[in-house]
């Protein structure tokens, strides 16, 4: 295999960094489709990894091809959206590639051009690869806007109350909240003195601010309220596919919405889950954590510069 092969084919995924080496995993179209996430949960085409020194790879990095993006706040339907847009005959979708997350967490700008070039590889010349990032990558948006100012992006978000109901609903999700905000301390500061409700509010506000700034820097960025995706999936998917430049047939999206993806849990297809179940769960959580919801709202009112900090996101919604 040559470096042209490495940089030319999606069959060689830059999956992670280990110290000063790049880790490549063998993939094919089916492996990408079945890999709900491209971190430790990846399902590669084969198990043999390839490690290359970064000193050999980085000097050979080509310019990245145009790439489409989904940025999101986490726990707001991004996996559902990304899987719904993943048509093996049309679109290549990369869900939460670990190397991208590592680049955000470690704040190593020298690795970003390599990551972007490797993520941009395509199976179809007429269809941009779609990358679903994760929360730490939201804090790389200024650098990404410089690197790819014309990128087509969908910024998926939830209003404050719905977001809190998603991330405070059980101890597992609260643990994620504490962990990720600790990881993000170099970007946001030390939040260890905040309780869970305050951390959730702070994480929501910082991401709203990051998305609002991104809208100014990225003329081809649009937003999608996750509640709209849940309540009206077909027009939401149609608008997202058109905006992101994905050549998906209308009937393909109709089939997806009518199929098992929208009646099971997107991260674990063996678990039954739909919009009605989501609404029931949210109502139960709201009753259980009502004082925390009030505390989070009060925290936002003290910290936000406007009464409606997510107004700019609502104003930049995808056209349906």
Task: Estimate the global geometry from the Cα principal axes.
Answer: globular
Strand content: 5-15%
Distance between the termini: 45 Å
Biggest sheet descriptor: 5 strands, parallel
From N to C, what is the helix and strand string? HEEHEHEHEHHEHEHHHHEHHHEEHHH
Helicity range of the residues? 40-55%
Structural class label = alpha/beta
Give the total of beta strands: 10
Output the radius of gyration.
19 Å
Helical element count? 17
Task: Report low-confidence residues grouped into runs of 5 or more.
Answer: none
Average pLDDT rating: 96
The strand line-up of the biggest sheet is 5-6-4-7-8
Describe the 3D structure.
Helix 8 (160-167) crosses helix 11 (196-217) and helix 13 packs antiparallel against helix 14 (250-258). The longest helix is centred in the middle third of the chain and has 22 residues, at 196-217. The mean pLDDT is 96. The protein is an alpha/beta fold. 39% of the residues are buried. Helix content is 48%, strand content 14%. A hairpin with a 2-residue loop joins strand 1 and strand 2 (21-26).
Q: In a nutshell, what does this entry contain?
A:
The chain is α/β, with parallel strands linked by helices and 320 residues long.
List the helices and strands and how they pair.
Elements: H1 3-8, E1 12-18, E2 21-26, H2 29-34, E3 50-53, H3 54-57, E4 68-72, H4 78-84, E5 93-95, H5 98-106, H6 112-119, E6 130-132, H7 141-147, E7 152-157, H8 160-167, H9 171-183, H10 185-188, H11 196-217, E8 221-225, H12 226-231, H13 233-244, H14 250-258, E9 264-265, E10 268-272, H15 275-288, H16 290-303, H17 311-315
Parallel strand pairs: 4-6, 4-7, 5-6, 7-8
Antiparallel strand pairs: 1-2, 2-3, 9-10
């Amino acid at each position: 295999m040559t470096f042209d092969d490495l940089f030319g084919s999606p069959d060689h995924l830059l999956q992670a960094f280990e110290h000063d080496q790049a880790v490549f995993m063998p993939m094919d179209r089916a492996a990408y489709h079945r890999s709900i996430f491209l971190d430790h949960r990846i399902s590669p085409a084969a198990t043999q990894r390839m490690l290359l020194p970064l000193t050999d790879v980085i000097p050979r990095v080509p310019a990245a091809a145009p790439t489409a993006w989904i940025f999101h706040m986490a726990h707001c339907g991004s996996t559902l959206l990304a899987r719904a847009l993943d048509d093996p005959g049309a679109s290549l979708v990369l869900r939460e590639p670990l190397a991208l997350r590592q680049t955000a967490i470690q704040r190593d700008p020298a690795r970003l051009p390599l990551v972007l070039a490797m993520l941009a590889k395509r199976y179809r010349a007429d269809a941009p690869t779609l990358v679903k990032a994760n929360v730490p990558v939201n804090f790389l948006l200024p650098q990404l806007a410089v690197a790819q100012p014309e990128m087509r992006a969908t910024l998926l978000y939830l209003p404050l109350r719905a977001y809190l109901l998603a991330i405070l609903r059980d101890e597992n999700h609260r643990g994620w909240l504490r962990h990720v905000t600790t990881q993000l301390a170099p970007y946001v500061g030390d939040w260890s003195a905040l309780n869970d409700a305050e951390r959730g509010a702070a994480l929501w506000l910082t991401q709203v601010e990051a998305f609002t700034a991104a809208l100014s820097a990225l003329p081809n960025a649009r937003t999608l309220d996750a509640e709209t995706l849940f309540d009206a999936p077909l027009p939401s998917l149609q608008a997202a596919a058109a905006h992101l430049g994905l050549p998906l047939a209308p009937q393909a999206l109709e089939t997806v919405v009518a199929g098992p993806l929208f009646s099971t849990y997107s991260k674990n297809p063996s678990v039954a889950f739909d919009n009605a179940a989501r609404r029931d769960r949210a109502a139960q959580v709201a009753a259980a954590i009502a004082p925390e919801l009030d505390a989070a709202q009060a925290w936002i009112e003290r910290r936000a510069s406007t009464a409606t900090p997510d107004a700019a996101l609502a104003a930049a919604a995808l056209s349906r």
